[in-house]
């Protein structure tokens, strides 16, 4: 697939770049995408939920009524789960939700997500650029000139650029990543993926 390379001001440079079929035109694997997104969301969970069971409740252990003759069920403690203020039965306890996923599955998921975006023509390539200062106004002007200011965008840089990152940080529905940190969840979440020219070649070396 060939794409025109645009300047960050929205003008066509006249140059073209070829997206590798081995990455952007494979047979997508939906289950790999599901597993990769599931792992990312699971790893983001804190797992600090906790409720007190009857052994952890403060209260008297005195038997609250006699065993027989009351006409109601026997009860031995005010901390019983059937009473108000009692402990919870099988309540949540702290746990780790993260799980392992093979690198090849994660790689397949990323390529599958990129293939979907390529087929839907949601990928653009920009000529290498930088800002003189980390100004939010500069980044917003760039999105406006590219006509992407009203959609969710993901800018993929070949290397970390502090000015670009800081300029985009306060803009809603905008994300900036280096190609090393590109992941399936963020690819799917974006309406338009903007690859800076050098990141395409680096992605080829990373995923092939």
Automatic annotation (TrEMBL):
InterPro entries: Ribosomal_uL4, Ribosomal_uL4-like, Ribosomal_uL4_dom_sf. GO terms for cellular component: ribonucleoprotein complex; ribosome. Keywords: Ribonucleoprotein, Ribosomal protein, RNA-binding, rRNA-binding. GO terms for molecular function: rRNA binding; structural constituent of ribosome. GO terms for biological process: translation. Pfam families: Ribosomal_L4 (PF00573). Residues 44-77 are annotated as: Disordered. The keyword Ribonucleoprotein applies. Part of the 50S ribosomal subunit. Belongs to the universal ribosomal protein uL4 family. Forms part of the polypeptide exit tunnel. This is Large ribosomal subunit protein uL4. It comes from Marivirga atlantica.
